[in-house]
Amino acid sequence: MRPQPSILLYTKLLSVIVKMKHHSVAVSVFDEMRRIDAPGLCDVGRWEDVEAMLDETTECKISKSVVTFNILVDAYCKEGRMKDVEDVFEAMMQQKICPDIVTYNALIEGYCVEGNMDRAKQVFNFIAEKGLKPCIITYNTLIDGYCKNGKIEEAWRLFLDVPRKGLEHTIYIYNTMIHGFICEGRFVDGWKLFNDMEARDPTVQTYNILLDGLCKSREIDEALQFVHKMEEEGIIPNIITYGTLINGLCKDGQLEAARDLYNVEACNLMDNVKLICLWK
What we know:
The protein is mainly α. The protein has helices at 7-19, 23-35, 50-55, 66-78, 82-94, 101-114, 117-129, 136-148, 152-164, 171-183, 187-197, 204-216, 220-232, 239-251, 255-264.
């Protein structure tokens, strides 16, 4: 009989699978871990008897690792299976496997994706109660959730709280906040935040967010000038930049200009990416 794969091998495999965003596969791999020498332990995809499963992990030669459980929690969260996450989380606590900040970050993201911002904030508050400190990823995740769920004021309050907690705003958190303002039609606030962050070297994603706002508000001339500013600042426009601009030109009725831009610029970036423009 050939030896069974080690927990280290499985954990590394799970980590790679999750990074590739194959979250349903990650769940299946973890279930396979549980089935080693213990067939039929639980039905695939359900965690109604997680505690019993964990009691048998020693017999299955599967160590109880917070790293392994973090991978599983993250996969379940991204699949939107929050009931399963809560079962796993409760079992971890009962088995004295202490969740770390990575666990809580995944949990917050799961509730944000679900749109349950009240629960996400409860988890955020619970972190301090457990003697842990939210990290910048924790703030990024919750701010992103607030923005995507249309709660821009809550996101802004949290954004302002970051430096008070001794943390530093990242480019990502600026991009998230700017995007939130633009989506809510608060262009002045978005541009003000952009001006505040310019010393932090905005990325092409930052410029694309603002460019999208200009195009959606039909400020096409300003959008074209903004692309020139990008290039002057050493920011190289990408396929998203040109796709946004071409779409804006089309919606503004400037079909010839859109076609010219497509032929001159966008095609150079195409490679295997298909840029779709509706000419109607």
